[in-house]
Amino acid sequence: MKKNRRNTLISILLSASLLGFTANPLNELHSPMVHAAMVKQNVPAKPSGSSSSSTNLQGDKTVTSKTTVSDDKASSDKANHSAFLVKRGGSLTLNNSVIAKTGETTSEDNSNFFGQNAGLLVTNGGTANVNNLTETTSGNGANAVFATGSNSTIKLNNAKINTTKNSSRGLDATQKGTITATNTNISTNGSHSATLATDRGGGTVTLNTGNLKTTGDGSPIIYSTGKINVKNVQGNASGAEAAVIEGANNINAVDSHLTANKNNGVMLYQSMSGDSEEGTASFTMKGGSLTSKVTDGSKGTTNHTGALFYVTNTKANVNLNNVKLTNTSDTLIRAAGDRWGTSGSNGGKLTFTATKQTLAGNVEVASGSSVNLTLKDGSSLTGSINSANTKGTTKLTLGSNSTWTVTKDSHLTTLIASKTSLKNIKSNGHTIYYDKNSSSNSWLDGQTYKLSGGGKLTPAS
Question: Taking the domains of the chain in order of start, what are their residue ranges?
Answer without folding.
Answer: 9-355
